[in-house]
Design a protein that fits this description.
The chain is an alpha/beta fold. The protein is built from 13 helices and 15 strands. Strands 4-1-2-3-5-8 form a six-stranded mixed sheet, with helices on both faces. Strands 14-13-12-11-15 form a five-stranded mixed sheet, with helices on both faces. A four-stranded mixed sheet has the order 7-6-9-10, with helices on one face.
Length: 493
């Protein structure tokens, strides 16, 4: 039941089949609390005479300071016999028109002159607070359909549009199946029927996806880059780490033009290490499912102990959703191991340290369920104990500024419920420390439980697939051809 009696938030699924598919991918990658199809703006918000809003974009993702604006166009690629004519017509309708829609949406969001709604009647307000426009980072994505089919028919290969950072604006009209800088107002990413699936299903967390978009924009703005498709750039990105141990486009200096031909992506996906990574990541979707369970009840207004509005509760799930895929694997493994090792009649807890200053500490609490105890009494007792655990974690770890507590039943019984709380340790007082010590002594909290901090390797077995290579022009080419870089992808044009 809902403690607030709040009406459920009904979410659109998209109007066309391609919009519904995009919505499905976005929900999987960015999760339902932050991803919304068919968002509308009302230019006369508050005016009861205005019954209909205007569609802002086909999909909108708002997470922290990042805003992703999607425009989806399903336009038939013509077959007049003149490729330049057919391409120019398709480009204007499927890509340029979408880019214009995106920039219009961005302008609206920056101005904050209109209310945002999830329905055309403008009765369901957009539930997530927008970031301050001065801090917001906008990511513009056009999804252009049917060009991939025509590209494959004309050129063969995967059908993905070629990337060429040396073309811009109307230069595209004379360069069939090539995409560069679509608009001078800002970078626009263009995904097609081939690359939409590849990118969103490979980078299927908000953190991993945003990092790729930002690094790609930076890479393409510093030199001329030509690639056989988006997937070739993605493979290059995933195979390399920069000096900060972040995935990046690591290439030798001294080249004004880089050309990445077909083969990088196929080499990546067929590597045994990539296959091992996919298998190891299966457990990580337990974390996604947990977030979606909380989000479902939050959006439906059916959370057991919800207090405050969505924005106040969303912060807990935002910490959880901020975790990249490899970290989710580690968290899921720790939670699953604790569930399997704690009998139904015993209390168990596990604490995971933050591995970086920006990460939260996590407390997993397993609390025995007594079927003779009233549900309300049990949940209140469990939440109270979970809050005590979080306070003791802060007591014992001065760096624990953000602590996320997650509680569920011990054992594998017929009932499974979940509670989550957020503990802000930034304004820690001596009185709170004294109270935490008292709780620790009275409840026996974290006196025998071991703190755990471990390393989860992205590619779990065998030789390394990713490299931190210091390149020279005579290094082996990053595409794996066996040639020297200067004779292959780095050859002068």
């Amino acid at each position: 039941m809902s403690s607030e009696g709040r009406q459920p938030i009904l979410r659109a699924k998209g109007v066309t089949p391609t919009e519904r598919y995009l919505n499905k991918l976005c929900n999987k990658s960015f999760l339902s609390l932050w991803s919304y199809a068919s968002v509308y703006r009302n230019e006369h918000w508050g005016n009861p005479g205005n019954k209909e809003g205007k569609e802002l974009c086909d999909a909108l993702v708002v997470f922290d300071n990042d805003i992703i604006i999607f425009s989806d166009k399903d336009c038939k690629f013509g077959d007049s016999g003149d490729l330049l004519v057919d391409w120019a017509r398709w480009y204007r309708k499927a890509i340029k028109k979408s880019a214009d829609q995106i920039f219009g949406a961005e302008r609206c969001l920056k101005a904050r002159l209109h209310g945002l709604f999830l329905d055309s009647a403008c009765t369901i307000p957009f539930p997530i607070d927008l970031p301050d426009p001065s801090n917001a980072r906008f990511h513009r994505i056009v999804v252009a359909h049917d060009g991939s089919r025509a590209c494959k028919q004309q050129l063969g290969g995967s059908g993905s549009l070629m990337i060429r950072s040396d073309i811009s604006g109307d230069d595209h009209l004379a360069n069939p199946f090539s995409v560069g800088r679509v608009d001078s107002r800002g970078y626009v990413h263009v995904f097609d029927d081939t690359t939409l699936d590849i990118v969103l299903q490979t980078l299927d967390t908000i953190t991993d996806f945003i990092a790729y978009l930002r690094k790609k924009e930076a890479f393409l703005s510093t030199r001329v880059v030509s690639a056989a498709g988006e997937e070739e750039l993605l493979a290059l990105y995933l195979k390399k780490l920069n000096r900060s141990d972040e995935h990046d486009f690591v290439v030798p200096d001294g080249y004004d033009w880089l050309d990445f031909t077909k083969g990088l992506w196929d080499s990546f996906v067929n590597n045994p290490q990539r296959k091992s990574q996919i298998e190891a990541n299966r457990i990580s979707y337990m974390w996604d499912s947990l977030i979606e369970t909380f989000a479902h009840h939050l959006l439906k207004g059916t959370q057991y102990c919800g207090t405050g509005g969505i924005s106040e509760q969303e912060i807990i799930l935002r910490f959880m959703a901020r975790e990249p895929r490899t970290r989710r694997r580690q968290l899921s493994n720790e939670l699953k191991q604790k569930l399997l090792s704690t009998p139904a009649g015993l209390r168990g807890a596990r604490v995971l340290f933050a591995t970086e200053a920006s990460e939260p500490y996590y407390v997993f609490l397993l609390y025995p369920r007594d079927l003779n105890v009233d549900e309300k009494e049990y949940r209140e007792a469990r939440r109270g104990l979970l809050a005590a655990y979080c306070a003791v974690v802060r007591l014992r770890n001065p760096t624990a500024l953000d602590v996320i507590g997650i509680a569920t039943e011990s054992g594998d019984g017929p009932i499974r419920t979940e509670d989550a709380i957020y503990f802000d340790g930034r304004h820690w007082t001596s009185a709170e420390a004294d109270h935490a010590r008292q709780l620790q002594d009275e409840l026996g909290i974290l006196k025998e439980v071991k703190y755990r901090a471990g390393t989860e390797h992205e590619y779990p077995t065998g030789a390394r697939l990713i490299h931190r290579t210091e390149y020279s022009r005579n290094s082996s080419c990053i595409c794996g051809s066996g040639k020297r870089f200067k004779r292959c992808c780095g050859r002068p044009k």
